[in-house]
Every structure is written in C-alpha cells, then in structure tokens.
Structure prediction request, 87 residues.
Amino acid sequence: MSGVLIFSTSFLTAVGVWLLGTRRYLQQHGGTVVTGATLWLGAWADWQQCRDFARAKQDSRALRWSNAFLLTQVGILVGIALAICGI
Prediction:
C-alpha cells in the first residue's frame, strides 16, 4: 500500500513540476518546449533541455527544476518497486 501511495504522489508531483516548473521556465527564458508522442516523452525532453540550459547559462533556478523533476522520477520507480513487492 505504501508503494502505491509513493507512486501516485510522485506521479502527481512530477506532472506539476513539469507543467508549472520546467515547461513554464523554458517558455519564459527562450527555451524550446518539445511536444512528444506521449506525456513522458515531452516531459523528459523538456527536462533534458532545462538541464542543458542550466549548465550553459549557469542558472541555479533551472538546475533546481531539473533536479526536482529527476527526484520525482526516482520516487515513481521506488513506488513501483514497492508496489510489486507488496509493500
């Protein structure tokens, strides 16, 4: 049960970080927002672009957004693993 809770919380947080953080940040700072075939292709493309933007411009805010998105992805994987194990 904990795995499902962690998964669902991480998933919803990931969508929020992507739509309200990473994507919005790229739009405001001249980045190209990528539309993918699926939700996660677009999210991962935006994450990569945000990370590259942060490194190129030495922008700590973009780096925080990309790290937050990556952390939510780790949470999703942990939630799936725990749910498979029945925890």
Q: What stands out?
A: The chain has a mean pLDDT of 89. Residues 2-85 form one domain. DSSP finds three helices and no strands in the chain. The first helix runs from residue 2 to 28.
